[in-house]
């Protein structure tokens, strides 16, 4: 076997238990990217985008799914037809990570985003930062003005015992494979609890405001 050949990607099995988010993207339909513009996103897609799986990525995934279910209770969410706003500045805390996941699913992009075709399907300036609000993030339908504002509270799901100590040990220079694996397992156990056991827990993902 060629040692330089890429091996198959392996990820924690619980990713498959996380509910996917399905959207319809008119631009994808127009360009023939997918049949009827139907796109299914899975948690693994968010992990690939972020390059890691953590409470922030999990929270962004859950907030986006919760918001879209509220905004489109009887139809597929229309990707590219939503504005996403965050309370924090783009370079503050984990705002950038949250925005990237929300943008992946909704199509919302900042000033560098796709400008559209013949005045339609634009994604530019639909992702904004530093917007005053009570919650953490707001999703708004462009066609109806309906909006939902949410907040992520990871402290609602207790950390596994000894997680801090395991992290400290894994970050130590020269930490062996067993030490790193013990931390990684505990860390993903915490993420799993959020995505699977507490996916519908209002203490974890709080809807702050919903309405026009």
How many domains, in number, for the residues?
1
Instruction: Indicate the CATH topology.
Output: 60s Ribosomal Protein L30, Chain: A
**Low confidence ranges:** none
Let me know the largest β-sheet.
5 strands, mixed
Q: Judging from the principal axes of the Cα atoms, what is the shape?
A: globular
User: Alpha-carbon distance between the termini?
Assistant: 59 Å
Oligomer: single chain
The tally of strands reads 7
Secondary structure layout plus pairing:
Elements: E1 21-24, H1 26-30, E2 38-41, H2 43-50, H3 55-71, E3 82-86, H4 95-106, E4 127-128, E5 137-141, E6 147-152, H5 163-170, H6 177-197, E7 205-211
Parallel strand pairs: 3-4
Antiparallel strand pairs: 1-2, 3-5, 5-6, 6-7
Helix pairs in contact: 3-4, 3-6, 5-6
What would you note in describing this structure?
This protein has 6 helices and 7 strands, in the order βαβααβαβββααβ. The protein is of the alpha+beta class and 212 residues long. The chain has a single domain, classed as 60s Ribosomal Protein L30, Chain: A. The strands form 2 sheets. Strands 4-3-5-6-7 form a 5-stranded mixed beta sheet, covered by helices on one side. Helix 4 links the parallel strand 3 and strand 4. It starts with 20 loop residues before the first strand and ends with a strand.
């Amino acid at each position: 076997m060629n040692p330089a050949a890429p091996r198959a990607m392996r990820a924690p099995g619980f990713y498959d238990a996380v509910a996917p988010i399905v959207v319809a993207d008119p631009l994808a339909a127009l360009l023939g990217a997918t049949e009827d513009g139907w796109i299914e996103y899975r948690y693994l897609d968010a992990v690939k985008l972020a390059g890691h799986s953590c409470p922030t990525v999990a929270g962004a995934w859950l907030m986006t799914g919760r918001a879209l279910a509220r905004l489109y209770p009887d139809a597929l969410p229309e990707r590219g037809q939503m504005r996403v706003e965050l309370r924090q500045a783009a370079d503050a805390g984990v705002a950038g990570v949250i925005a990237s996941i929300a943008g992946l699913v909704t199509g919302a992009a900042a000033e560098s985003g796709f400008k559209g075709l013949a005045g339609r399907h634009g994604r530019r300036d639909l992702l904004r930062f530093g917007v005053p609000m009570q919650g953490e993030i707001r999703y708004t339908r462009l066609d109806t003005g309906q909006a939902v504002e949410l907040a992520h509270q990871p402290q609602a799901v207790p950390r596994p015992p000894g997680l801090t100590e395991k992290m400290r040990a894994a970050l130590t220079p020269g930490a062996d494979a067993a030490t790193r694996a013990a931390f990684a397992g505990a860390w993903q156990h915490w993420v799993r609890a959020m995505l699977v056991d507490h996916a519908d827990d209002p203490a974890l993902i709080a809807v702050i405001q919903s309405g026009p």
